[in-house]
Amino acid sequence: MGTSDYILVFNGFELQYIILTVLLFLLLCVSALVSGSETAFFSLSPANINEIRKRPSAANQAILKLLSMQDYLLATVLIANNLVNICIVLLSSYILSGIVTFGGAPIWEFLIKTVVVTFLLLLFGEIMPKIFAAYNSLRFVRMVSVPLLGLKDLFKPFSYVLIRAGSLVSETMARKRADISMDELSNAIEITDHQTDEEKQMLSGIVSFVNTEVEEIMRPRVDVVALDETVDYEEVKRTIISSGFSRIPVYRESLDHILGVLYVKDMIPYIGRDSGFGWQRFLRTPYFVPEHKKINDLLEEFQANKVHMAIVVDEYGSTVGLVSLEDILEEIVGEISDESDTDESFYKKIDDHTYIFEGKTHLNDFERAVDLDEDYFRDERGGAESVAGLMLEIKGDFLKKGESVTSHGIQFTVESLEGRRIDQVKVVLPA
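Request: output the structure for the sequence above.
Response:
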């Protein structure tokens, strides 16, 4: 009867296989320790950690050091565990091939070398150690901390690669989830029937808040009320009264050289002083921000630095505008009016299809006022931020009083000019 007639033939143990079997058993013990250490370290309670800190020893110091580098701890455990398990599988397959001859039934070779070995590895190298470690976490970590600290140093280059790769994936997925959430929120706001128009506008402002840049909400340079450092105190008082602002930038020679900000409240005790009063010594340090800063970041900076106004500069350091805390809040809650504001708005409605807008009106405000979708003029606006800027983009040149341009069926006509600047625009919507 040939060998092939038997399912299994036991060839007996040679010395090398006895040695390899002992090595296999040791590797299984290592696998159990490494697997259990992951559960043990991450099962430590605050009370356990306090006890470790109170009792200095080599093992406890190693535990604290590993816990302070949890990313490297986890990466070390994963690398060591996988390496040991691979060695166990390969070594067990080699031993079985040497001591057992498989006959004419290949299914038995598959079952023993793969299924049985995998089951034993999971049971003794993974499941049982993790259960034990969960109930004896403090005892377990003290047993493995010093060897694991050595493995951490040994595998540090590989751990670094794993951590960096994991971080990149996490950041990518986090951005993707954030984008999806923003889209879902926008859609939810559009389809809801229970909010008023004011509530929908506020919710939309919150959703788009994180994507809005300073340049989109700032008061442009041409509309900034500022004081030359050389003017007398009478001129300062006139500017304060006429503007109604509580904070006014002060410049030397031009707006590109802002010296500081004058707070009106600082002048109240000296309101009766004559024109020679040295008001310049009350200037406060100006706060500068780039034009492309996100307004949610700027709001955090305002809160942290306790300021309410910032000078907006471009990449060359030139002043391009001014932004205040009120401007940021208005992006969420809409226009804020106080006792210093006039009753005039930035537009006047003539009839259902005709409006008069200020040329400086931001396109986002214009779109909201006439009930158009956000970024309605995306294809034609170019770098324009205002109604007047949109007209210049469409025309490609300066416009004269009475000239008109048309975009998406909407007619824009120059109603009045201040020099070359478009002051007021007549807007006629399609019927």
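Confidence is low (pLDDT under 50) at residues 339-344.
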